[in-house]
Amino acid sequence: MKILVIGGGGREHALVWKLRQNTAAEKLWCAPGNGGIAAGAECAAVEAGDVAGLVALAGKIAPDLTVVGPELPLVNGLVDAFVERKWAVVGPDKKAAQLEGSKIFAKEFLQRHNIPTAEMYGAHDSAGAAYGALCAVDWPVVIKADGLCAGKGVFVAPNPDAATDFIERVMEKNELGDGGKRVMLEEALEGEELSFILLTDGERYAALAPTRDHKRVFDNSEGPNTGGMGAYSSDDLLPAQLRRTIKTTIVEPTMKGLAADGIRYQGFLYIGLMLTKEGPKVLEFNCRLGDPETQAILARLEFPLAAVLADVAAGRLQPDKLKWKAGASACVVLASGGYPGKFEVGKVIYGLTEAEKIADVKVLHAGTKRLGDNLVTSGGRVLGVTATGNTLGAALQRAYEGVGKIRFEGMHYRKDIGKLQQSSAAGN
Ligand SMILES: Nc1ncnc2c1ncn2[C@@H]1O[C@H](COP(=O)(O)OP(=O)(O)O)[C@@H](O)[C@H]1O
Ligand SMILES: [Mg+2]
Description:
alpha+beta; 5-stranded parallel beta sheet; 5-stranded antiparallel beta sheet; binds adenosine-5'-diphosphate; binds magnesium ion
């Protein structure tokens, strides 16, 4: 089998790592890939958002299967272009990807199908209307930019001044670009967050191992939001009763709702949940796997990924093929100095070989590139040190042992991955 993976972060490195372990996967490409992915796949210099460039690349290498990592190509219609040409691809089409591409579209979907979610106060396409709407909300209020904003589009505003400031930055100064043209105001929920990710062929679905990520840059969930500083997976995250509740109140109504709306959703569907006192409620949908959740999830994979993904693309998923290693896994992200603000790149990375000598440790690359004989940093999030263990404690211990072997100038990371984080502290 020839497989093309789209994207170039830690999530895509994890996909390439596991697709490689499958004997059916003979040849792998990745666009654009990174310095670590290059060890397992041939990297092609096409950006993930460039639909025309990716169609041209796939036309040339003729992969048997294409797996899309990030949201941008999905929202830009990459899958539509592939399906039109009858090329096998894993990921939702443009219409289905609106579940992530528009938070207002997602909220209206949730409301229409009576799926538990935060109450929406209103959606606005002018700053004036949004300021006006602040008179009639409870505090704190959650303000969400409608479109794709790379994790910067949501603000839990504690008071009217902070809310006004955010709306001004998003809607008047256009700091988030087109993603901020419309905003939605919604009720603030309290509880712990949980990522619940499905793999579906449009009809059947299977749940992946449950995960939780850590978004704030510093320990105790302090400091600004990031793309994710770490994640862990453990079956304890999802007791049987909670799993049943999520299945009956959220997953099944979502699958039925998609069918009723004529949306054929194929690929990974990420459901961000808040576990409130009233039960689980949907915070958001993502139309792809999470990063760094994927690193933790795939570390526990015990099935041939390439074969199962080929089944998804062909519309014949067999959910009971997805098997997960018992126990737990953890991924600790090593970031560049200054991240998530301005950061420097080009720092030489040391200690990777020593880290990977530790049993059950895998270092997944997010922002690295080869420079001569060296591997150097090339992004804000640089590496995800990922480990498995019989217990979460064992997985964390191994992951941090691996972290201890690695160094580059300015490197920083959280020391509390795997500890419970309260959502009340998130989102600012
Ligand atoms: N209704 C809400 N109540 C409380 N916190 C929220 C709410 N919606 C979002 N958040 C917080 O903001 C974070 C980001 O929001 P989310 O909807 O996941 O958007 P995105 O991931 O696109 O930035 C969430 O992980 C959560 O911590
Ligand atoms: Mg989110």
